[in-house]
Amino acid sequence: MKKYFLFVGLIAASLTTITSCKKDSFADDYKNPGKVSESTPEKQFTGMTYDFRALIIPSYGNYFITLRPTINLYIQNLGSINQANQLVPGSAAVEERWNKYYAGLAQYKEFVRLYDALSEEDKEQKKVMALAAKVLFYDQTQQMVDLVGDIPWSEAGKLMGNGGNYTISYPKYDKAIDIYTTMLDDLKSISTELSKLSIPKSFSNTFKTQDLINNGDLELWKKYCNSLRLRMLTRLSGNSQFATRSNTELAEIINNQTTYPLILTNSDNAQIDIFNLSSDIKSEDIKGAFEADGWTANLASKYMIDEMNRIKDPRRQLLFETGVRAKNAYIGLDQSLTSAEQNAIARDSVTSFVHRHTISRNKFLPGLLFTASEVNLLLAEYYSRNSNNSAAKSAFENALRQSVELYTSISKKSDDPTVAAAAIPTADEINTFVNTVNWDAANNKIQLIATQKWLHLNMFQAVENWSEQRRLDYPKFVIPTFTSDRQKTVPFKLTLPQTEATYNTANYNEVKDQDSPNVKLFWDVN
């Protein structure tokens, strides 16, 4: 692997050649981000989205290299064949994510450098792009922090700004708690600025063509920003240092949604859609990610299937197929069995597996950033903790219906001709599902919310899913280990890539004591 990828603070910004980038013509405009001589803030904005796309749009690297041996095992998004040391976070898994995050970070830092060099008049004209860029960057940064804790951040990605001088560009680490604080401060200010902003007519078409997420819609960026604040403030609410701030700002957002609009319908979801399979904005070999390893990479977990069976979940038929010898029964892979027993069952074609039409062969899988279901589940938790049962129930049931609607729409996008499309859930099936989940009968509302959040976020937003499972401690999973295993419990976080100790040694040594899978994140207080 080239040092270009290893030095997180030394990654030069990949400059783009975009003059316009409508989603359906992206490949024509974005030829080669590494072979150009000049850039503009507009090009860098889309260049940042382009590099982050590998962490947003389903891709082989993210799903097979990063998620398969880590998060999808830890929280049973999928079943997994047990093996020795399976709870030891692999270096390849984190390096895959690390390199792609820092490629996007470098693009963002170059965007900031170029934007700051503009005249005050040009800055004002393009302010909406600067604010939107920061919202997306903070979303991806939150996920990186939630995976590993302290990271190089404030000083990372500045090689271009430092004139190519490597000797002064090795980045220090920022503490996770400080990064969160900075992002929350900025997002609050961004929310205020967006609420007062109007996009100049002379720039609106440019922003629309460069914006691959919200198509230049200012209202959608407001909703994305405030929804991200809602997520982060809820994440910190159990930490005594942030409790007062979290409670105050959550109440401010939730009780004043005219000023602080949120993503409340699927039409408002923050996501990257696939329009043109010949462009670079597409799902990259997602079929290979799921249908590799003798078809053991796409097996459903017993935990998930059992819960879906119990509540008559109509998403089950959208997300999974039944094994060819299962007599139409949905059966998940039992993690408590020995690997020999698991392999025998897998070979027997009884276990359910990821739906090929909806997921593994769906070339139009969107990249989900923030959905209405997640927002409503966060609202349900807030209302429940504040003794507003009727509002909590309404938000919760809205989330269930929106989740079914979302996965139905994803299935409908597929044009795969080799596998029959999943049956579309009927209104009766959806009503039966909501009634079976039964908000009123649940003694532990937080556990109920957490379980439905796990099912909704699923494998599509696995990092966020793991973060919420660690925060809430629901659902609970038992992953077998062997006597000789080095790691006997599910990690609290992933470890930093070995390349940091090798190439950024002095700065890494400052955080070395925290670089352990058994050290909790600062917000993980349960």
Count of helix runs: 24
For the biggest β-sheet, the strand order reads 1-2
Helix content: 40-55%
Number of strands: 6
Beta-strand residue fraction: under 5%
Mean pLDDT: 91
Which structural class do the helices and strands define?
Answer: mainly alpha
Defining traits:
526 residues; two-stranded antiparallel sheet; mainly alpha; two-stranded antiparallel ribbon; 51% helix; globular; 6 strands
Structural description of this entry:
This protein has about 525 residues and is mostly helical. It contains 24 helices and six strands. The chain has helices at about 5, 25-30, 40-55, 60-65, 70-75, 90-115, 120-125, 125-150, 175-195, 200-210, 220-235, 245-255, 285-290, 300-310, 315-320, 340-345, 355-360, 370-385, 390-415, 425-435, 445-455, 460-470, 500-505, 505-510, and strands at about 150, 175, 270, 320, 355, 365-370. The strands form three sheets. Strands 1-2 form a two-stranded antiparallel sheet. The radius of gyration is 22 Å and the shape is globular. The two termini are about 40 Å apart. Residues about 1-35 have low confidence and may be disordered.
How do the helices and strands line up, and which of them pair or pack?
Elements: H1 3-6, H2 26-29, H3 41-56, H4 60-67, H5 71-74, H6 91-116, H7 120-125, H8 127-148, E1 151-152, E2 173-174, H9 176-196, H10 201-210, H11 218-236, H12 243-254, E3 270-272, H13 286-290, H14 302-310, H15 315-319, E4 320-321, H16 339-347, E5 353-354, H17 356-360, E6 367-370, H18 372-385, H19 389-413, H20 427-437, H21 445-457, H22 462-472, H23 498-503, H24 505-509
Antiparallel strand pairs: 1-2, 3-6, 4-5
Helix pairs in contact: 3-6, 3-8, 4-6, 6-8, 8-9, 8-11, 9-11, 11-12, 18-19, 18-21, 21-22
